[in-house]
Amino acid sequence: MTAPLLRVEHVMVQIGGLVAVSDLGFEVGQGEVVSLIGPNGAGKTTAFNAITGYIRPRRGTIHFEGRDIIGLSPERIAALGLVRSFQRTSIFGACTVLENALMALHLRGRAGLLEAFIPLPGRRREEARLRDEAMAMLDFVGLSARAAARADSLAYGEQRRLGIALAAAAAPRLLLLDEPAAGLNPSETADCMALIRQLRDRGTTILLVEHDMAMVMRISDRIVVLNQGRIIADGPPAAIRENPEVIRAYLGGAPEGVGHAAA
Ligand SMILES: Nc1ncnc2c1ncn2[C@@H]1O[C@H](COP(=O)(O)OP(=O)(O)OP(=O)(O)O)[C@@H](O)[C@H]1O
């Protein structure tokens, strides 16, 4: 058996005096789509922040491709291939969709300072190549027809897709998506699911936090359930749906669709 891409063990995070996550432990294997779910305040965002280097855990270990990443900066972690989705706010609204895509490719570091030293014909070739790559990326997320539009003129679902495309531009090994379907209508959610599947098929492993249970049940290979800062279940959707502790955790004002009792 190969080592998991991500291994989180006994992670404890304190925010102020409060224990936001008490004992987090789960793995994400290469090529999987794993969802992290749980009622409000369960610790999902905190877990994402710890994995991506925005919060330092008090205890525990986080290994990415066998390497301990606790203490590394978010930029360093991203450079290793563990990337978090850009939120809608990180899209430059006043720039065109294509310009946003080009900026994401530049940030990836292929182009950049070095470019200034390339002789002009070479630079033009490099620019044309990047443009082609940016267009291919927009085509991939179904936005090539909108390339010349200002990003803030896109519909909400399109902006979310652009956000995912910008994160995917880094060609990450593991992509963390924070509520990719939030605020989307059913047809936009279907597009978002198709996009996640395409990313997985291209070799990107996906870990997502999502409240849309219908989507989580359909898209996940495995679901990790957090409640009050600890893991209460970890397994394939069919097992999670039937898990009494999960159903209990969600009863009383939880997202619809977990388990038959809550449905
Ligand atoms: N900046 C903060 N200051 C104080 N408490 C915080 C902070 N961030 C998180 N917490 C607390 O830590 C716990 C876990 O919160 P977290 O945001 O990780 O949960 P979540 O599962 O992402 O919730 P939601 O689904 O509502 O986004 C909660 O009790 C929350 O109140």
From TrEMBL:
<dbReference type="InterPro" id="IPR003439">
    <property type="entry name" value="ABC_transporter-like_ATP-bd"/>
</dbReference>
<dbReference type="InterPro" id="IPR027417">
    <property type="entry name" value="P-loop_NTPase"/>
</dbReference>
<dbReference type="Pfam" id="PF00005">
    <property type="entry name" value="ABC_tran"/>
</dbReference>
<dbReference type="GO" id="GO:0016887">
    <property type="term" value="F:ATP hydrolysis activity"/>
</dbReference>
<protein>
    <submittedName>
        <fullName>Branched-chain amino acid transport system ATP-binding protein</fullName>
    </submittedName>
</protein>
<keyword id="KW-0067">ATP-binding</keyword>
<dbReference type="InterPro" id="IPR051120">
    <property type="entry name" value="ABC_AA/LPS_Transport"/>
</dbReference>
<dbReference type="GO" id="GO:0005524">
    <property type="term" value="F:ATP binding"/>
</dbReference>
<keyword id="KW-0813">Transport</keyword>
<dbReference type="InterPro" id="IPR003593">
    <property type="entry name" value="AAA+_ATPase"/>
</dbReference>
<dbReference type="Pfam" id="PF12399">
    <property type="entry name" value="BCA_ABC_TP_C"/>
</dbReference>
<dbReference type="GO" id="GO:0005886">
    <property type="term" value="C:plasma membrane"/>
</dbReference>
<dbReference type="InterPro" id="IPR032823">
    <property type="entry name" value="BCA_ABC_TP_C"/>
</dbReference>
<feature type="domain" description="ABC transporter">
    <location>
        <begin position="6"/>
        <end position="253"/>
    </location>
</feature>
<keyword id="KW-0547">Nucleotide-binding</keyword>
<dbReference type="InterPro" id="IPR017871">
    <property type="entry name" value="ABC_transporter-like_CS"/>
</dbReference>
